[in-house]
Every structure is written in C-alpha cells, then in structure tokens.
Design goal:
mainly alpha; 2 helices
C-alpha cells in the first residue's frame, strides 16, 4: 500500500463503506453505459452446458453401502414394539 494512502485498515474501511453504499456499483454502471454508447461492448451470450452440473446426490443417486429396497404394499406389518422400544417376544 503506498504511504500517501495511509494505513491499510483505513483504506479497507473506506473501500467497504463505498461498497456498501453503492458507490462502486454506480461507477461501474456509468462506465458500462459510456462504453456501450460508443459500441465498445459486444453483448454476446454463450451458454456451455458442460459447466452446468449437479452433484451426484442431487440427482437421487444412492450412497454406497445403503441399498434399501422398498417394501411391497401388501407386506405384513412389522412386529410390535414395547414402550421402551425393545421388540416384544413372539
């Protein structure tokens, strides 16, 4: 940091203050408008589908080691449990 700007903490505080109150956004927008009116910006949009990927679990993939099969609708109910959660003797 150059000496004439003062301590880095003060510079950072000023930067954050200007970021929060929208000063940097207004400067960027003004520069963008100027460049656009002079046709210095080309507004082309390119979407590459190879960068749009979901995590394997987002797609419903099974985790390793937990292969659960769903019970058929007509399966008998499980054995009754006691109030403490232990299975009752059959």
């Amino acid at each position: 940091m150059p000496q004439e700007y003062g301590p880095w903490g003060r510079v950072y505080d000023l930067f954050r203050r200007r970021q929060r109150n929208g000063t940097w956004q207004r400067i960027f927008t003004a520069l963008q408008v100027r460049a656009d009116t002079k046709d210095l910006i080309t507004w082309e949009i390119n979407v590459d589908s190879t960068i749009v990927r979901a995590h394997q679990h987002a797609a419903g993939a099974r985790k390793r080691g937990t292969c659960r099969t769903s019970r058929p609708a007509a399966s008998p109910p499980s054995r009754a449990t006691t109030a403490l959660g232990a299975r009752a003797a059959a």
